[in-house]
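Input sequence (356 aa), recorded before submission:
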Amino acid sequence: MSAPFEMLLEAPVYGLSQSQKMPLLLARLRELSLHHREHCGSYRQISDAAQACEQAQHYAELLPLAVRLFKQRPLSSITQEQLFKTLSSSGTSGARSQIFLDRAAAALQSKVLVKIMQHWLGKKRLPMLLVEQPALIANRQGFSARGAGALGLSFLGRDHCYALDEQMQPNWPAIDAFCERFAGEPVFIFGFTFMLWQCLLQPLAERGILLPLKHAQIFHSGGWKKLQHLAVSPAQFNQCCEQHLGSAQVHNFYGMAEQTGTIFVSCEHGHLHAPMLADILIRDPRTGQPLGIGEAGLIQVFSGLPESYPGHSLLTEDLGIWLGEDDCPCGRRGRYFTVLGRETTAEVRGCSDTFS
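Predicted structure, token format:
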């Protein structure tokens, strides 16, 4: 590992100021760009055609790959013999992204994901209620993004309880047994956003049930499109969690299959924060030019993790606003932002949007 990469891996998740973090991450991203040019023919062709800057001095100079490219062609920097696992992105129609991992890449993703989540949960594994069905993670060789996300986070919990049956209905006996056993303890609850809403929160609300849980840490992620169609705001979602899942702290997080292991978690003020090995930039969707604080545009995400495929600099199809850096009221350093939703011409995707 290079020195900048090791320094980022060892740094506190949100402990570096932007001026400390940016040169280290830029050095790592430049290293990854050269690595993928050497080992991925498709990336080299795209880079040559774009006349990409190999010694970028700022995020804006790094070549951004559109995430949809991963649906259109295989992008891999490893050989078939090195292939350990293939992830498939979520999506409701058309082709899905294929993400190719060797053993080292898969292990690094897991290591960083655990470090990010331990910042929020602590190092002690908590009893975990997954708003999922057990069969989702049965096949560990060819995962969907939804399955990979659920499995990756399940390592942070213990005494796992799957809240849904095979028909995606609440498994009330299992839920009751979990609550009876852990009613007075801190617990960890995870579900993709729409599934948590439709498959657990709404059935609880319809029955007027308040689960007897205390100090629940709730993490959810995935598309908000279906909730927007139901006119459910993030504030309403959080309020419903608190009403029916006990005394709860609710965290949304932003991430994607194309950068598995890197997630941006929301703080108590609702701001999504870039961790030590990742960052964001906002670009004008018409001109591609980088935008400043407070301006809405397409989100470009950076990650120092992807070595087995060229996913280190990606232009997403999500609109967001860069809110600031180093000055969030929560005290966490680095850049923070909010996601506004999908760009209007983008296809529907998102882990919870795949369930209907």
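Checked by second reader. Confidence is low (pLDDT under 50) at residues 348-356.
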